[in-house]
Amino acid sequence: MGNVGSNSRVNNRRRSSGSGRRIHPPPVRPQPEITANQFIYPAVTTTPHHNYSDYYPPPPMWGRYPQPQPQPQLQLPPQPMPYVEHQKAVTIRNDVNVKKETLKIELDENNPRSFVVSFMFDATVDGSITIIFFAKEGEGCILTPMKEKTLPPVTVNFQKGIGQKFKQPAGTGIDFSVFEESDLVKVSDMDVYPLAVKADASSRDGDGSNETLTSGKTNSQMTQAVFEKEKGELRVKVVKQILWVNGMRYELQEIYGIGNSVESDLDGNDPGKECVICLSEPRDTTVLPCRHMCMCSGCAKVLRFQTNRCPICRQPVERLLEIKVGSEAEE
């Protein structure tokens, strides 16, 4: 009996103590907040086991993603400069020469509405000059008048002499009002030139009829021109000049710089006469097609192997033409 009672009292105490008194865990104090410092870096703690990929990126997978390899470039050998042909000019005797810069039209004295042609010319022999309006050049340098009925050709004989002036006879001029302006200022599709001047080196028989005009057997010079309008007035503009010598046709081209080489009154030290490369020898070689006479023959022979550009205008050179002028040509 006594044992049973004691046990029950102990159990009651335990129940009463458990029900009346609760045990709470100790309170957790908040930790102070740590602010980042830009000048202080946490130390890296090493561990016995670390992963390599945490610190370095994985290497590229060359087997799966091949990188393009640079292709070798072929080195082509340098191209040699084109060879430029060097020729020597052939001297042709021109017995009569019309100075194209002096070619102009003047009022006709007998008809104020018409105009006549005038110019300066040189002649070493006697000959004749023919004025043809609307002329077409045919085979053998024969000029055919296309408006012969309204504007017949006019032929005038001359004697040899230097610095002569030619003027078309009065009453034989051209009246521009009866023609369209488009017919006067350009060459037609049929190669008809509004004005042509033919100077023959020998006198013709007769009075310049069609038979003697179109014979084409004498040596002659032909100047073909058009008219241009400047400040409301028509003026003559030379298009080309042609030489017909011994059955051969030559088209005259102006050479830039040849005047300095042939003028004997210039000082020998004049820079206009010297080669632009060596600056010592006189100029005697022309560059084609730009027609600059700017070099001596010695420098031209070297230039044709080194470059194909003109020393003056830098245009491509097709040919080099050696021209002996003055006393050199007569030797």
TrEMBL record:
It comes from Lupinus angustifolius (Narrow-leaved blue lupine). Residues 1-10 have a biased composition (Low complexity). This is RING-type E3 ubiquitin transferase. Residues 11-24 have a biased composition (Basic residues). GO terms for molecular function: ubiquitin protein ligase activity; zinc ion binding. It holds the Pfam family RNF157-like_N. It comes from the Eukaryota. Belongs to the RING-type zinc finger family. LOG2 subfamily. Signal peptide: none annotated. Residues 209-221 have a biased composition (Polar residues). GO terms for biological process: protein ubiquitination. Pathway: Protein modification; protein ubiquitination. Residues 1-34, 200-221 are annotated as: Disordered. Residues 275-314 form the RING-type domain. CDD domains: mRING-HC-C3HC5_MGRN1-like. Keywords: Lipoprotein, Metal-binding, Myristate, Transferase, Ubl conjugation pathway, Zinc, Zinc-finger. Its EC number is 2.3.2.27. It catalyses: S-ubiquitinyl-[E2 ubiquitin-conjugating enzyme]-L-cysteine + [acceptor protein]-L-lysine = [E2 ubiquitin-conjugating enzyme]-L-cysteine + N(6)-ubiquitinyl-[acceptor protein]-L-lysine.
